[in-house]
Design goal:
By secondary structure, the protein is mainly beta. The chain has 2 domains: about 140 residues, no CATH class; about 110 residues, no CATH class. It is built from 2 helices and 16 strands. The strands form 3 sheets. It has a 7-stranded antiparallel sheet, with no helix packed on it. It is globular and about 65 Å long. It starts with 6 loop residues before the first helix and ends in a 37-residue tail after the last strand.
């Protein structure tokens, strides 16, 4: 006999399909093949045209679209067909770029590849996406615990009068993330009450970053993320830990994700949501 699939399970399966589709994006997080931090001295990187450097404000590139470097020039030969473009316009010669701290990177294209020019904690870097990345080619699915309604709990959201800035570390030593904390959410599981900091806003969406008793074992150690629906008028909000998801750093060494704040380190094992993809050998 075929088991009956509940609406709860079907919605979870739909979410899983959407997550796997996210992971398969040709220039998504699983396509990363490099993260190059820039210093004050210009340098070149394997497979990339040009020479690159950065200071406290800008990133500088010297790109020669045709001729090889000569007479000690900083320009380097891009190679046949290696044209660097930004928003469809070819870049050549001396180029100045101004990535914004903590924001999505400026996007440059080199053939099928994408170069993200980013700034994190005052440091600039080039992050390389390649649709032919081995990590992407090897991907099958994101491993996860089977859905369990017991981990679909109702909590109470309490907003702060004024949003607070909470600083956390990152998976890359020396980097920091500065989050806007909007309030807290309190919930009870198995007779014990827990409280988590909530990041984000009603306008852009709210979420929690947390670790638990499974972190570093069956789930990724840095943090998992749980997106929250908009709280009801009385502050009640559903926390469906079955949809706890991995941050990009669970899949690649070339991400700069935050770690969970100390306030959000749950002492209970949340055996729900996505598992560590590397330990499961699925990505």
């Amino acid at each position: 006999m075929t088991a009956t699939i509940t609406e709860f399970e079907q919605q979870w399966r739909t979410w899983r399909t959407e997550r796997d589709r996210w992971a398969r994006q040709p220039l998504g997080w699983l396509s990363l093949t490099g993260l190059h931090w820039l210093g004050e001295e210009a340098e070149s990187f394997d497979g990339l045209p040009g020479r690159w450097r950065a200071d406290a404000e800008n990133v500088y590139a010297t790109i020669d679209s045709g001729s090889p470097a000569r007479n000690g020039s900083a320009a380097v030969e891009s190679g046949a067909g290696e044209v660097v473009t930004q928003e469809g316009a070819a870049l050549s010669g001396a180029v100045t770029l101004a990535p914004v701290e903590g924001a999505p990177g400026l996007e440059l294209r080199v053939g099928d590849r994408l170069i993200e020019v980013i700034r994190r904690s005052g440091q600039a870097a080039l992050r390389i996406h390649d649709p032919a990345a081995p990590t992407l080619a090897a991907f099958t699915e994101i491993p996860a615990y089977e859905p369990n309604p017991a981990w679909n709990v109702t909590g109470v959201y309490t907003p702060f009068e004024v949003a607070r800035v909470v600083t956390t570390g990152a998976v890359v030593d020396g980097l920091q993330h500065h989050h806007s904390a909007a309030g807290t959410v309190t919930f009870t599981f198995d007779g014990t009450e827990y409280t988590l900091l909530v990041f984000g806003s009603h306008l852009l969406g709210q979420h929690v970053l947390f670790t638990d008793g499974t972190s570093g074992d069956t789930t990724y150690g840095g943090a998992r993320r749980l997106d929250l629906p908009r709280p009801a008028a009385d502050g009640t909000v559903v926390l469906d830990f079955n949809r706890a998801l991995n941050l990009p750093c669970a899949f690649t060494d070339y991400a700069t994700c935050p770690v969970a704040p100390p306030e959000n380190r749950l002492p209970v094992a949340v055996v729900a949501g996505e598992k560590d993809p590397r330990k499961e050998h699925s990505a």
